[in-house]
Specification:
25% helix; single chain; alpha+beta; 15 strands; 4-stranded mixed sheet
């Protein structure tokens, strides 16, 4: 009941419980604008875009013939660095043919497309594996300097997250250097252009710096040096939520940040009505709640209970 609750709370703050002055349609529009604003300011919708994938599906190109039993499905090991999980699958045989390959364990840590083989089963004609699909992930591309924030696979990964619409900012980027995956240093684009892209030799190696051209959802990521090979890349982003259309729409914004929605929506409503003093009052309440919510969301802890400094 997220939308209904927001509508009720906002109408009460506006002293308009029967929507005589502010329609439900208008309030819904302002509520969604408020939700976007809060997500951008608080960065309360983070997402780590992974640098490796899991297996979603394994197709059958040719079912073969003469199978007396289901063949054994063997999947190559994950090739990513760090903790990984081996994927497993089983084949289904109907009428002597392999009709399907079911992924039992999706696994994790696949960067290169895995190899899937079928063995055994007493066939006359061997079945062949078809298309393999992986969950979206990001990796550097040899010779590719730029990566769009809201193009696949980043945009696809964001949309797969319940209630997320698009990425609007980047917090950090890490790229695998073999057995390590360091977080890259950030440089403003003017510095990046003047000090690093000034060399026209197309230097390629493991990236150590990143920059961005533009802001918001349309920004472009630049890496330096230009990647010389495909490597895992993890990108920490923060996002906007999908608009609330009905009470069935998933609300991704977490507590306590939902508290500020009604105040910013009321601010927009009063601004639209040319009631600027009331609008400024609502703006002050919104800011007060955002500060309090930030404090509430920040736990009291020591970085290290044993640090002597």
């Amino acid at each position: 009941m997220a939308l209904t609750q927001y509508l009720t709370d906002t109408a009460l703050i506006l002293n308009d419980p029967n929507n005589l002055f502010f329609s439900t349609t208008a309030l819904t529009n302002w509520i969604n604008k408020a939700r976007n604003r809060i997500a951008e300011v608080s960065q309360c919708l983070p997402l780590l875009i992974p640098g490796a994938g899991s297996i979603l599906t394994i197709g059958v190109a040719n079912g073969g013939s003469g199978y007396g039993s289901a063949p054994t499905v063997t999947i190559s090991a994950p090739d990513a660095s760090g903790p990984v999980t081996q994927a497993t699958a089983t084949a289904t045989v109907v009428g002597g043919q392999v009709t399907a390959i079911t992924v039992n364990v999706s696994g994790s840590g696949y960067v290169a497309m895995p190899t899937v083989t079928l063995s055994g089963g007493g066939y006359s004609v061997a079945a062949t594996v078809g298309t393999i699909t992986l969950t979206p992930y990001v990796a550097t591309v040899a010779g590719q300097e730029t990566y769009a924030l809201n193009a696949p696979p980043i945009s696809t990964t964001v949309l797969n997250q319940p209630g997320y619409q698009r990425a609007v900012g980047i917090q950090s980027i890490s790229v695998s250097w073999g057995s390590m995956k360091p977080t890259l240093d950030f440089k403003p684009f003017t510095t990046f252009q003047a000090q690093y892209r000034a060399y026209n030799i197309g230097y390629q190696n493991y990236p150590s710096l990143w920059s961005r051209l533009g802001r918001g959802a349309s920004q472009i990521i630049y890496l330096w040096p230009i990647p010389g090979q495909a490597s895992q890349m993890e990108i920490a982003v923060y996002c906007q939520p999908i608009p609330l259309v009905t009470d069935l729409t998933y609300e991704a914004i977490p507590e306590p940040f939902t508290d500020g929605v009604k105040y910013y929506a009321a601010y927009l409503a009063y601004m639209n009505a040319q009631r600027k003093d009331d609008a400024m009052w609502m703006a002050s309440l919104y800011k007060e709640h955002m500060i309090e919510n930030g404090v509430t969301d920040t736990p009291s802890y020591s970085p290290s209970a044993y640090d002597g400094d």
